[in-house]
Specification:
The chain is α/β, with parallel strands linked by helices and about 170 residues long. It has one domain: Rossmann fold, CATH 3.40.50.2300. It contains six helices and seven strands, in the order H-E-H-E-H-E-H-E-H-E-H-E-E. Helix content is about 45%, strand content about 20%. The longest helix is centred in the last third of the chain and has 20 residues. A five-stranded parallel beta sheet has the order 2-1-3-4-5, with helices on both faces. A two-stranded antiparallel sheet has the order 6-7.
């Protein structure tokens, strides 16, 4: 059941109907102790074809990652049982799965340091549309790298009389 603002539900449904099926079956693991946020992200992403699983502690997230089959991770920096940065180091020993890190620390210095170390960082007050765009970008790059294929064609997004064609300059 959607608990977000009604206009986001309409946007999600409209875009989901107009988006190419490139996300179908893409498995996302969200590792965050905020269960409500995990549920909201799941409800937002699933209409786009993403399959979202949640882990609520660092050790649980690590165990789930070791089982395999995850295409991207959304990882909170501050977790019970294990710091998100420490968890990322452990994940990198066995996997190069793309990771988007969430932080409630809005400190500009933290974001700069994270980016300098090659980490993708989103503040906890992220836009769902930005999250969707970043997930699409990292999973598309990963699929292209793995398969050696060109990125998938992106269909236009149509909301009422508005048409956005991401595949062209129009």
């Amino acid at each position: 059941m959607w608990r977000g603002p009604p206009f986001l539900r309409k946007i999600a449904r409209t875009e989901a109907m107009n988006v190419a099926n490139t996300e179908a079956g893409t498995r996302i693991l969200m590792i965050d102790d905020d269960r409500t946020l995990c549920q909201l992200v799941k409800e937002f992403l699933e209409p786009f074809g993403f399959r979202v699983e949640s882990a609520f502690t660092g050790p649980d997230g690590l165990r789930r990652m070791q089982q395999g089959g995850i295409d991207a991770v959304i990882l909170d920096v501050m977790l019970p049982g294990m710091d998100g940065f420490d968890l990322l180091k452990m994940l990198r020993r066995d996997s190069d799965v793309p990771v988007l890190m969430l932080t409630s620390r809005g400190d500009e210095l933290d974001r700069i340091v994270a980016r300098d170390r090659g980490r993708r960082l989103l503040p906890k007050t992220f836009s769902t549309r930005e999250l969707l765009a970043r997930l699409r970008a990292v999973t598309r790059r990963t699929r292209s790298d793995v398969r050696g294929a060109r990125p998938a064609v992106v269909l236009p997004i149509i909301v009422g009389p508005l048409r956005i064609d991401p595949g062209s300059a129009r």
